[in-house]
Amino acid sequence: MRMKTFRAPTQTVAYEMIKAELGEDAVILSNKSVSENGSKCCEIVAAIDESAPDITAAPTRDDVLDEALQASNGWQQEWGQIKGQIMALLRPQMNLEQLSPRQRLAMEYLEREEVGGEVLFNVFCSLREDGKRSILSVLDTMATTKPLGGKHWQRKVHAFAGPHGSGKTSSLIRVALQEKENNPTANICLVSADGSQGKGRLILKHYAELSGMAHREFITHEDVAALRREAGRFDMVLIDLPGISAQSHLNEWLDVHGLLDWQELAVHLVLNPYFCSRQFEIFMERYKSPKVASVIWTKLDEACTFGAILNTACASGLPISALSYGSGLKNSITPAEKEMIWRMLFMRQLPGSDN
Ligand SMILES: Nc1nc2c(ncn2[C@@H]2O[C@H](COP(=O)(O)OP(=O)(O)OP(=O)(O)O)[C@@H](O)[C@H]2O)c(=O)[nH]1
Ligand SMILES: [Mg+2]
Fold first, then answer.
1. Percent of the chain whose pLDDT exceeds 90
2. Atom of ligand 1 minimally distant from the CA of 298
3. Distance (Å, whole) CA 308 – CA 345
4. Does residue 342 carry a pLDDT above 90?
5. Integer Cα distance of 45 and 297 in angstroms
6. Could you tell me which residue ranges the SRP54-type proteins GTP-binding domain spans (predicted)?
7. Phi-psi sector, 110: left (phi>0), alpha (psi -120 to 50), beta
8. Does 243 sit in the ligand 1 pocket, CB within 6 Å?
9. In this structure, are strands 27-36 and 39-48 parallel, antiparallel, or unpaired?
10. Does the beta carbon of 108 lie inside 6 Å of ligand 1?
C-alpha cells in the first residue's frame, strides 16, 4: 500500500489532488485541519493498494496482452464452460415426461423464468422421486428468507452494498422509514460511507433530518472508530456503502475501512434481477464476504423474468431479506417472504400487487 499526505487550502482541492495522483480507488486514512505558514489548510493522508493497476501510466499493447493472459478470471471462464458442458450432458437425462403433468408444467414455468440448468436439474431429481410431490415443497428447501426489519435480525448495524445504481441508498431509506413507521420511538442512525458521491450523502442527510433520525458520515478510520463506539446507543444503524469498482472486492473494502471485524454488522447485497448469469457469477465473486448476510432484490418492477432470485439463492446460500418493486420511497419495499418469491416466479405477481 502506498501512502501520501496531501495539503490544500480546501478539502475539495485536496480530494482533486488525490484523485489526480492516486486515482478513484484511493482510500482516505485521515483528514484534519492544520496550520501552514500561519494560515489554515486541509491535510489528508490517502493510500492506494500497490497491486492496483497504475491508472496514470498509459499501458502499452504488450501490457494489455500480458494482463489479458494473466487475468484471474481465466479459470472462471473455463469453469463456466465446463459447467455448461456438464449441463448439456445432463440435459437429455432430464426427461420431463417422467414427471406428473402438474410437475412438468411447473418445471416449464421455471425454465421460462430463466432458472439455471443446475437448479432445474436439482428440482427435477427431487420431483422424479415422487409424482405427487408439489414443486413448492422442493423450492422451499432451496431458498430461505430472513425479513429485514423487526425482530428477525439480532444484529443492529446493517450496511447496504452492491453495484453502482442498484438501489442501495433508496433501499436504506425505505427500510429506515418503514422501521420508523412501525416503531416511532426507535432511535435510528443513517450513515453515509459514500464520501465520493455527494448526491446519495445529501439525500440521506435530508431524510434523516426530516424523519428525526441521526446522520453520520465516515471517510476516515477515525470516523469508523467513532461510529463503532457510539453505535450501541442506537436501535438501528443503517450504512450506505459506495459501489465497488470492477477491480475491487467488498471484503477488502470492509477490511481496509475497519469494518470486517465488527460483530454487530450485517451487510446486505442489493441486486437487480435482470443481469445475465455470467454477470451474477462475477457479482457473487466480487461481493463475497463473511459479513454478507442477505440479498435485497430491487427494481423487480423493471424485470421480465425472476429466475435470478432462485439461482442466486441456490448459488450463494444467502437468505433474501427484502424485495423492492418501485422507484418511489414509500410503499415500494417489503420484508421478503417465500410466498412472494413463488408468486413472482409462477404468476409474475409483484409483492404489493393483487393482480
Ligand atoms: N423502478 C425502480 N427503480 C428503483 C428501485 N429502487 C431504486 N430505484 C431507482 O434506481 C435509481 C438508483 O437508486 P439508488 O438508490 O440511488 O442506487 P444506489 O445503489 O444507491 O446508487 P449509487 O450510490 O450511485 O451506486 C434511483 O433512480 C432509484 O429511484 C426499484 O425497486 N424500482
Ligand atoms: Mg447511493
1. 60
2. 31
3. 10
4. yes
5. 37
6. 155-347
7. alpha
8. yes
9. antiparallel
10. no
Cα separations in angstroms, 61 against 23, 223, 261: 22, 42, 42
Measured from the Cα of 197, ligand 1's closest atom is 23
For residue 38, give the DSSP letter. Answer: T
Compute the distance from residue 243 Cα to the ligand 2 centre, in Å: 8
**Can you spell out the DSSP letters for 265-316?**
EEEEEEE-TTS-HHHHHHHHHHT--TTEEEEEE--GGG-S--HHHHHHHHHH
327 lines ligand 1 (CB under 6 A): yes
Look at residue 31 and give its three-state secondary structure.
Answer: strand
Cβ of 168 closer than 6 Å to ligand 1, yes or no, is yes
| Tens digits of residue pLDDT in 155-194 | 999 999 999 999 999 999 999 999 999 999 999 999 999 7
Nearest C-alpha to atom 17 of ligand 1 is from which residue?
167
Pocket test for ligand 1, best of 168, 170, 296 (most atoms within 8 A of CB): 170
Under a CB-based contact definition with an 8 Å cutoff, are residues 51 and 60 in contact?
A: no
Query: What is the mean pLDDT of the segment spanning 235-241?
Result: 96
Whether the CB of 324 sits within 6 Å of ligand 1: yes
Pairing of strands 320-324, 292-297: parallel
Architecture of 157-347 per CATH?
3-Layer(aba) Sandwich (3.40)
Residue 311 CA to residue 120 CA, distance in Å, equals 9
